[in-house]
Amino acid sequence: MTDQPNSPQLYLITPVGAAASTLGPMLAEVMDRFPVACLRIPGAGTEDELGRIADLAREIAHARDVAVVIEDHVQLAQRHGLDGVHLTNGARGVRHARKELGQDAIVGTFCGASRHDGMNAAEAGADYVGFGPCGATALGHGEIAPLELFQWWSEVIEIPVIAEGALTPALIGQLAPVADFIALGAEIWSEPDPAEALGILWR
């Protein structure tokens, strides 16, 4: 899949609640084996914990020329030299984050399955918009972002789009022609060998 002309790039999400001491080796192995376009840190955790993970992720990712964003925490992104933020509340906060971080920072946002939120985020100046979950899951609102949403977006909107949430090899195959990035995280970190699990998904 990744050798096709219009194939999406890999957008990697670090595991939620991971200790910096265990995260480092896992993250380095995965990023050495697979070309990652961007690394995202989930926003859950204490300020100290997130700070340690941010420093570790930045060191590992920047050594491989990979950008790092953190969910929602604009000040942490500034303090720890990250490349930007990933907002989890749609279009809200895009303009504020851009004002705080500057024009060169990455400001992306997650818009669930809402085309309307995605369009508002794009108009507000988001660098990318994410939709999901793409597969069945009991988490969140349970509303799946359909393939048709990605097809429409890729035809009409120029802002890059990310597909994420409950992804399988079959879903990735369907989304590959219409998504700019495929975000993977929980799908691999729960497995005994995350790099091997990613290899099964990312073919």
Produce a short descriptive summary.
With 203 residues, the protein is of the alpha/beta class.
Descriptive account of the structure:
The protein is an alpha/beta fold and 203 residues long. It is built from nine helices and eight strands. The chain has an eight-stranded parallel barrel with strand order 1-2-3-4-5-6-7-8, surrounded by four helices. Helix 5 (115-124) links the parallel strand 5 (106-110) and strand 6 (128-131). The longest helix is centred in the N-terminal third of the chain and has 16 residues, at 47-62. The protein starts with 8 loop residues before the first strand and ends with a helix.
Task: Report how far the terminal alpha carbons are from each other.
Answer: 5 Å
Strand percentage: 15-25%
Helical fraction equals 40-55%
Radius of gyration: 16 Å
Structural class computed from helices and strand pairing: alpha/beta
Side by side, the strands of the main sheet go 1-2-3-4-5-6-7-8
Mean pLDDT: 94
Number of beta strands: 8
Order of helices and strands: EHEHEHEHEHEHEHEHH
Q: Number of DSSP helices? A: 9
What is the makeup of the main sheet? 8 strands, parallel, barrel
Low-confidence stretches: 1-5
* Shape verdict: globular
